[in-house]
Amino acid sequence: MGNHAYAKQELLTDPYLQQPTDNTVLVEWYTEYEGEDNYVLLYEDGPDNEPSRTIYASTVKLSHIRGGKKERDCDDASIKADIYKHKALIDNLPPYHGKDSERIPYKVVSDKAQSDIYTLSALPQPGTDLKILLTSDLQIKDMCAANFETVKRQIGQIDAVFINGDCTDVADRAYDWFYSDNAFFKVLQGRGNHETAGHIYKGGAIIQSAPVYTSVGNHDVMGLYNESDPLSFQFNNPMPVIYAEEKYEQLTDKEGVDKESFIKDNSFNTATYEEIFDLPLNNKGKENYYALTIGDISMVVLDTSRVWRQPMLGINGKYTEFPGAPKELYGYGDFIFEDISEGSDQLSFLRRELKKQDYRNAKYKLVMFHFQYHSLGCNQIPPYTDPVPSEVIDPVSKLKMVTYDYPISEDYIDKYVAPVLEESKVDLLYNAHSHVWNRFITDSGMNILESSNIGNTYNCFLGDDKRLEYPSAFNEGDPRASISGSWNRENYVLSGDPYGLSPVSPSVSNLPDNKPFLASNTVTAFSVLDTGKGTVDSYYYDTENPDKGVILFDSFKIKRGE
Fold it and tell me: DSSP H helical segments within 291-370, as ranges?
């Protein structure tokens, strides 16, 4: 309990790169002490020469991150994690066209501690051949270190990383970002130390020399903030903004209470996620959805995160509230964090960005968001829409109970987002969330890839395999079967893609189980978008049979119709 002394004269992380422009890039890193001298040394004449420039960094303490360094106390919200972020803007960089001479050696220094020498560059220009890692759903899962170590060994220099949500398991937990042997920064910087199937993996030194772009996943969002409840409980306890606004209005004394902070602390927030990443800003001055151009790629990143609750009935879950619960104790089902329905700011932003000439003229047009659209994964239930409440008498408790149905006809991605993507001839939609690999092609030729099997899996469901996340009242003999009419069975597709597409089988070689998808707790996959070849290439690595090496199993052209 109480404060832990997080203070050593060493770096907590290596540096990583953010938000490159035509002639600048941000270099960022972390320590457990504020430091008096935090700076970047550039070696523009080569790493064997004296530094050519010194760029000093600004420093800020992370505001919401908490918990201990060990698994036993990582969830303790009363432990203050004194972690400082250092950020330096490196300017006057040469335009980057992919030449080694355009990559500048650098290292970071905080007082007596310093990093190894890595390289940085400005934003890649059009026509630059890039290899971009597509990954997601790290969540300190078992195969993360093995996955990224394999990426580095197989691919070598990665030019950018697109992380499609769920960077950690609990966003405010210091353990997940910095201290676990499978922590976010450790595995993406080759500093991990995680055992999988009898082998120790360190991850890959990737983000020291490659900018990172992310989308918001459900695990990047925290719920009601306090300094007593376990951090994992706080993560699982978000509320809609309207709940927090009503609570604020009920305050008898508002003096000294900042309304914006109060609402975030009493609903949900992405404070740590926003402090960790410096991403492009949208027209609202936020970074939860945005647009970017890198080389020949123009991409729009959306926020499709929503709370994930348990599917059981009779609890504050996906489909019910606790029987007899007063409104102030509701959980509000699987509610959506950022609106993307008709009339929303986010949908308007998407339409504007996809109509821009730069996007229309881009060689490769991408969209990235966390919640999957076409997928065989378990998280396709329930549909992506606002929960529709009803009230029944619970046959078990005999008390009034609120139920939630999710009309598939009102799925916001299918109804509003997908038509915009098709109309704009988007080449590739990259989504995630179910910890699997599967891909699809729409009737018009848009490629859809879910490549998130880097840790555990939540399985794929095809043929006789049925999803289990539907209301259990549908089951014969269930104690709540008499209220099964509260839910429309057609809203819950138990097998296959709910929107009717068949998965595309791997194009290069069979997966180990000869299925058209990968859902495994021992075989991990990664995908690389290669603009030089114009392909997305997917590889697998069997952690239980490492001598077999890395296997290329799928490759497809990025451009629709090619």
Answer: 345-355, 357-361
| CA atoms in the 13 A half-sphere facing the CB of 217 | 27
In the chain the first and final C-alpha atoms are separated, in Å, by 59
Fold (CATH) for 124-221+270-557 = Purple Acid Phosphatase; chain A, domain 2 (3.60.21)
How many angstroms separate the CA atoms of 148 and 140, rounded? Answer: 12
pLDDT beyond 90 at 8:
no
Chain segment 443-481, per-residue pLDDT in tens: 999 999 999 878 789 899 999 999 999 999 999 999 999
Quote the mean pLDDT of the chain: 96
Question: How many C-beta atoms lie closer than 10 Å to residue 459's C-beta?
Answer: 18
Instruction: Show me where the domains of the chain are located.
Output: 1-123, 124-221+270-557, 224-269
Residue 342, both tokens: 């008709």
Is residue 470 within 8 Å of residue 480, measured between CB atoms? no
Query: According to the 3-state scheme, what is the secondary structure of 119-136?
Result: EECCCECCCCCCEEEEEC
Q: Provide the token pair at 462.
A: 């095809």
Domains 1-123 and 124-221+270-557 share a fold: no
- Note whether 12 and 178 are within 8 A (CB): yes
Structure tokens of 542? 């069997």
What does the DSSP 8-state code read for residue 175? I
User: What is the Cα–Cα distance from 435 to 137, expressed in whole angstroms?
Assistant: 7
pLDDT at 22: 97
Q: How confident is the model over 346-362, as pLDDT tens digits?
A: 999 999 999 999 999 99
As given in the structure block, the two tokens for residue 227 are 């300094």
Section 387-394 average pLDDT: 98
Q: Is 2.60.120.560 the CATH number for 1-123?
A: no
C-alpha angle 431-434-435 in degrees, rounded to nearest 5: 95
**Going by C-beta distance under 8 Å and a sequence separation of 6 or more, which residues neighbour residue 362?**
293, 296, 297, 298
Contacts of residue 418, Cβ cutoff 8 Å, sequence gap at least 6: 373
For the stretch 528-542, what's the b/e string if a residue is b when 16 or more beta carbons lie within 10 angstroms of its beta carbon?
bbbbeebbbbbbbbb
Which one-letter DSSP state was computed for residue 484? G
Q: pLDDT, tens digit, for every residue of 202-231?
A: 999 999 999 999 999 999 999 999 999 999
- DSSP conformation letters of 306-317: B------SSSSS
Q: How far apart are CA 506 and CA 553, in angstroms?
A: 6
